[in-house]
Protein backbone atom coordinates (compact mmCIF):
# COMPACT_ATOMS: atom_id res chain seq x y z
CA UNK A 1 0.00 0.00 0.00
CA UNK A 2 1.59 3.27 -1.13
CA UNK A 3 1.17 6.06 1.37
CA UNK A 4 2.12 7.37 4.78
CA UNK A 5 3.81 5.15 7.37
CA UNK A 6 4.52 5.82 11.06
CA UNK A 7 6.29 3.55 13.52
CA UNK A 8 6.38 3.77 17.32
CA UNK A 9 8.76 1.77 19.49
CA UNK A 10 8.03 1.48 23.23
CA UNK A 11 10.43 0.19 25.88
CA UNK A 12 10.05 -0.15 29.64
CA UNK A 13 12.32 -1.25 32.44
CA UNK A 14 12.52 -0.53 36.16
CA UNK A 15 12.13 3.20 36.73
CA UNK A 16 12.26 4.13 33.05
CA UNK A 17 10.14 4.00 29.91
CA UNK A 18 10.79 5.37 26.43
CA UNK A 19 8.84 5.97 23.25
CA UNK A 20 10.42 6.60 19.86
CA UNK A 21 8.46 7.74 16.80
CA UNK A 22 9.48 8.10 13.18
CA UNK A 23 7.50 9.00 10.07
CA UNK A 24 7.91 11.10 6.93
CA UNK A 25 8.22 14.32 8.91
CA UNK A 26 9.45 13.47 12.40
CA UNK A 27 11.85 11.40 14.48
CA UNK A 28 11.61 11.94 18.23
CA UNK A 29 12.66 9.98 21.29
CA UNK A 30 11.13 10.61 24.71
CA UNK A 31 12.28 9.03 27.96
CA UNK A 32 10.16 9.14 31.12
CA UNK A 33 11.60 8.49 34.57
CA UNK A 34 9.33 7.32 37.39
CA UNK A 35 9.29 5.87 40.88
CA UNK A 36 6.61 3.29 40.14
CA UNK A 37 3.79 5.56 41.22
CA UNK A 38 4.33 8.80 39.31
CA UNK A 39 6.58 10.51 36.77
CA UNK A 40 9.68 12.06 38.31
CA UNK A 41 11.19 13.47 35.13
CA UNK A 42 11.06 13.41 31.34
CA UNK A 43 13.42 14.29 28.55
CA UNK A 44 12.95 14.58 24.82
CA UNK A 45 15.33 14.31 21.89
CA UNK A 46 14.51 15.82 18.51
CA UNK A 47 16.38 13.75 15.92
CA UNK A 48 14.59 14.90 12.74
CA UNK A 49 11.98 17.65 12.89
CA UNK A 50 10.20 20.16 10.64
CA UNK A 51 10.91 23.49 12.38
CA UNK A 52 14.06 24.91 13.98
CA UNK A 53 12.22 25.56 17.28
CA UNK A 54 10.95 22.00 17.75
CA UNK A 55 13.86 20.90 20.02
CA UNK A 56 13.06 23.75 22.42
CA UNK A 57 9.81 21.97 23.30
CA UNK A 58 11.75 19.27 25.15
CA UNK A 59 11.90 21.46 28.26
CA UNK A 60 8.08 21.60 28.33
CA UNK A 61 8.09 17.90 29.23
CA UNK A 62 9.14 18.93 32.76
CA UNK A 63 5.44 19.64 33.34
CA UNK A 64 4.78 15.89 33.33
CA UNK A 65 6.39 15.49 36.76
CA UNK A 66 3.77 14.17 39.17
CA UNK A 67 1.68 12.46 36.47
CA UNK A 68 0.48 9.13 37.92
CA UNK A 69 1.74 5.99 36.20
CA UNK A 70 -1.45 4.77 34.58
CA UNK A 71 -2.33 2.47 31.71
CA UNK A 72 -4.89 4.86 30.25
CA UNK A 73 -3.44 7.03 27.46
CA UNK A 74 -5.78 9.98 28.03
CA UNK A 75 -4.47 10.77 31.54
CA UNK A 76 -1.62 12.87 30.18
CA UNK A 77 -4.10 15.24 28.48
CA UNK A 78 -5.66 16.06 31.83
CA UNK A 79 -2.32 16.71 33.51
CA UNK A 80 -0.92 19.43 31.22
CA UNK A 81 -2.09 21.65 28.36
CA UNK A 82 -1.07 19.83 25.14
CA UNK A 83 -0.99 23.13 23.23
CA UNK A 84 2.08 24.10 25.27
CA UNK A 85 3.87 20.93 24.17
CA UNK A 86 5.35 19.50 21.01
CA UNK A 87 2.44 17.32 19.85
CA UNK A 88 4.64 14.37 19.01
CA UNK A 89 6.95 14.40 22.03
CA UNK A 90 3.90 14.91 24.25
CA UNK A 91 2.01 11.98 22.75
CA UNK A 92 5.11 9.78 22.96
CA UNK A 93 5.51 10.72 26.63
CA UNK A 94 1.91 9.65 27.21
CA UNK A 95 2.56 6.32 25.50
CA UNK A 96 5.73 5.83 27.53
CA UNK A 97 3.73 6.29 30.73
CA UNK A 98 1.10 3.76 29.68
CA UNK A 99 3.84 1.34 28.73
CA UNK A 100 5.50 1.80 32.13
CA UNK A 101 2.19 0.83 33.71
CA UNK A 102 2.20 -2.41 31.70
CA UNK A 103 5.59 -3.33 33.12
CA UNK A 104 9.00 -4.15 31.61
CA UNK A 105 9.06 -5.10 27.95
CA UNK A 106 8.75 -3.74 24.44
CA UNK A 107 5.93 -2.95 22.05
CA UNK A 108 5.92 -1.71 18.46
CA UNK A 109 3.13 0.03 16.59
CA UNK A 110 3.04 0.52 12.83
CA UNK A 111 0.43 2.73 11.18
CA UNK A 112 -0.13 2.94 7.42
CA UNK A 113 -2.47 5.30 5.57
CA UNK A 114 -2.91 4.88 1.84
CA UNK A 115 -2.71 7.78 -0.55
CA UNK A 116 -6.25 8.90 -1.54
CA UNK A 117 -7.86 7.23 -4.53
CA UNK A 118 -11.21 8.61 -5.70
CA UNK A 119 -11.76 9.99 -2.20
CA UNK A 120 -11.09 6.64 -0.53
CA UNK A 121 -8.36 5.99 2.05
CA UNK A 122 -7.41 2.84 3.96
CA UNK A 123 -5.84 3.31 7.39
CA UNK A 124 -4.43 0.42 9.39
CA UNK A 125 -2.69 -0.05 12.73
CA UNK A 126 -0.65 -3.08 13.76
CA UNK A 127 0.75 -3.86 17.20
CA UNK A 128 3.76 -6.16 17.31
CA UNK A 129 2.91 -7.26 13.79
CA UNK A 130 -0.75 -8.11 14.46
CA UNK A 131 -3.58 -5.94 13.04
CA UNK A 132 -5.54 -4.17 15.77
CA UNK A 133 -7.52 -1.44 13.95
CA UNK A 134 -8.55 -0.68 10.39
CA UNK A 135 -10.59 2.14 8.89
CA UNK A 136 -11.94 2.68 5.41
CA UNK A 137 -12.52 6.39 4.90
CA UNK A 138 -14.58 8.02 2.16
CA UNK A 139 -14.04 11.77 1.76
CA UNK A 140 -12.60 11.93 5.27
CA UNK A 141 -15.47 10.08 6.95
CA UNK A 142 -15.14 6.53 8.31
CA UNK A 143 -17.19 4.09 6.22
CA UNK A 144 -15.91 0.88 7.83
CA UNK A 145 -16.04 -0.69 10.33
CA UNK A 146 -19.71 -0.21 11.14
CA UNK A 147 -18.82 0.56 14.77
CA UNK A 148 -17.20 3.85 13.76
CA UNK A 149 -19.22 4.60 10.61
CA UNK A 150 -20.05 8.26 10.10
CA UNK A 151 -17.30 9.57 12.39
CA UNK A 152 -14.20 11.49 11.44
CA UNK A 153 -10.85 10.51 12.95
CA UNK A 154 -10.70 13.93 14.62
CA UNK A 155 -13.81 12.96 16.60
CA UNK A 156 -11.69 10.61 18.70
CA UNK A 157 -10.46 13.19 21.19
CA UNK A 158 -9.06 12.53 24.63
CA UNK A 159 -12.31 13.53 26.36
CA UNK A 160 -14.42 11.09 24.36
CA UNK A 161 -11.91 8.26 24.78
CA UNK A 162 -11.50 8.59 28.54
CA UNK A 163 -14.23 6.05 29.24
CA UNK A 164 -12.95 3.39 26.85
CA UNK A 165 -10.68 0.48 27.79
CA UNK A 166 -7.08 1.69 27.73
CA UNK A 167 -5.91 -0.52 24.84
CA UNK A 168 -8.80 0.55 22.61
CA UNK A 169 -8.24 4.21 23.44
CA UNK A 170 -4.52 3.90 22.71
CA UNK A 171 -5.16 2.37 19.29
CA UNK A 172 -7.68 5.06 18.36
CA UNK A 173 -5.38 7.89 19.43
CA UNK A 174 -2.48 6.52 17.40
CA UNK A 175 -4.43 5.90 14.21
CA UNK A 176 -6.22 9.25 14.52
CA UNK A 177 -2.86 11.05 14.52
CA UNK A 178 -1.57 9.00 11.60
CA UNK A 179 -4.57 9.88 9.44
CA UNK A 180 -4.21 13.57 10.27
CA UNK A 181 -0.54 13.59 9.30
CA UNK A 182 -1.02 11.56 6.14
CA UNK A 183 -2.82 14.50 4.54
CA UNK A 184 0.44 16.46 4.50
CA UNK A 185 1.88 14.15 1.84
CA UNK A 186 0.15 16.30 -0.77
CA UNK A 187 1.62 19.56 0.57
CA UNK A 188 4.87 21.33 -0.25
CA UNK A 189 5.66 22.47 3.28
CA UNK A 190 9.14 23.58 2.24
CA UNK A 191 7.57 26.60 0.56
CA UNK A 192 6.90 28.12 4.00
CA UNK A 193 9.86 30.01 5.44
CA UNK A 194 8.54 29.96 9.01
CA UNK A 195 5.81 28.17 10.95
CA UNK A 196 3.92 31.47 11.16
CA UNK A 197 3.67 31.53 7.36
CA UNK A 198 1.40 28.47 7.51
CA UNK A 199 -1.19 30.52 9.45
CA UNK A 200 -2.33 27.52 11.50
CA UNK A 201 -3.03 29.40 14.69
CA UNK A 202 -2.17 28.07 18.16
CA UNK A 203 -1.73 24.36 17.53
CA UNK A 204 1.31 23.31 19.60
CA UNK A 205 4.53 24.58 21.19
CA UNK A 206 5.87 25.88 17.86
CA UNK A 207 2.59 27.14 16.40
CA UNK A 208 1.92 29.90 18.90
CA UNK A 209 2.59 33.65 18.87
CA UNK A 210 6.17 34.57 19.65
CA UNK A 211 7.50 31.15 18.68
CA UNK A 212 6.02 30.51 15.22
CA UNK A 213 7.63 33.65 13.78
CA UNK A 214 11.09 32.42 14.84
CA UNK A 215 10.58 28.78 13.83
CA UNK A 216 12.42 28.34 10.54
CA UNK A 217 11.49 25.61 8.11
CA UNK A 218 14.10 22.82 7.99
CA UNK A 219 13.93 22.26 4.27
CA UNK A 220 14.80 18.79 3.04
CA UNK A 221 13.88 17.09 6.32
CA UNK A 222 11.01 15.05 4.83
CA UNK A 223 11.53 11.34 4.12
CA UNK A 224 9.28 9.17 1.96
CA UNK A 225 8.73 5.81 3.65
CA UNK A 226 6.04 4.61 1.23
CA UNK A 227 8.54 2.06 -0.11
CA UNK A 228 11.44 0.22 1.44
CA UNK A 229 11.85 -1.08 5.00
CA UNK A 230 9.96 1.83 6.55
CA UNK A 231 10.45 4.00 9.64
CA UNK A 232 12.39 2.73 12.66
CA UNK A 233 13.68 -0.13 10.55
CA UNK A 234 16.98 -0.17 12.43
CA UNK A 235 16.77 -1.57 15.94
CA UNK A 236 18.95 -0.16 18.73
CA UNK A 237 21.83 -2.38 19.93
CA UNK A 238 20.85 -5.09 22.41
CA UNK A 239 21.11 -3.73 25.93
CA UNK A 240 21.34 -0.10 24.79
CA UNK A 241 19.49 2.33 27.02
CA UNK A 242 17.32 5.08 25.49
Describe this structure in words.
It is built from four helices and eight strands, in the order E-E-E-E-H-H-E-E-E-E-H-H. It is globular and about 50 Å long. It has 242 residues and is α+β, with helices and mostly antiparallel strands. The two termini are 31 Å apart. A hairpin with a 2-residue loop joins strand 6 and strand 7. 39% of the residues are buried. The chain has helices at residues 75-79, 87-102, 158-161, 166-182, and strands spanning 3-13, 16-22, 27-34, 39-48, 105-114, 120-127, 130-138, 141-144. Mean pLDDT is 94; it is low at 237-242. 17% of the residues lie in helices and 28% in strands.
Radius of gyration equals 17 Å
Q: Which structural class best describes the helix and strand composition?
A: alpha+beta
Strand order of the largest sheet: 4-3-2-1-5-6-7-8
Let me know the number of strands: 8
Shape: globular
Question: In sequence order, what are the helices and strands, one letter per element?
Answer: EEEEHHEEEEHH
SSE blueprint and pairings:
Layout: E1 3-13, E2 16-22, E3 27-34, E4 39-48, H1 75-79, H2 87-102, E5 105-114, E6 120-127, E7 130-138, E8 141-144, H3 158-161, H4 166-182
Antiparallel strand pairs: 1-2, 1-5, 2-3, 3-4, 5-6, 6-7, 7-8
Amino acid sequence: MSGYRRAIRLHAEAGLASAEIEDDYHHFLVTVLHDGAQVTGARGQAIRYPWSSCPLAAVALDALAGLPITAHPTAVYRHVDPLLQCTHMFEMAGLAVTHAARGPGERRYEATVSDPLDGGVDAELACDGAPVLRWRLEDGVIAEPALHRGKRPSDFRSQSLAGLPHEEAEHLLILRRAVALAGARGMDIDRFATAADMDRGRACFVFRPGVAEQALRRRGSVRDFSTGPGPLAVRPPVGARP
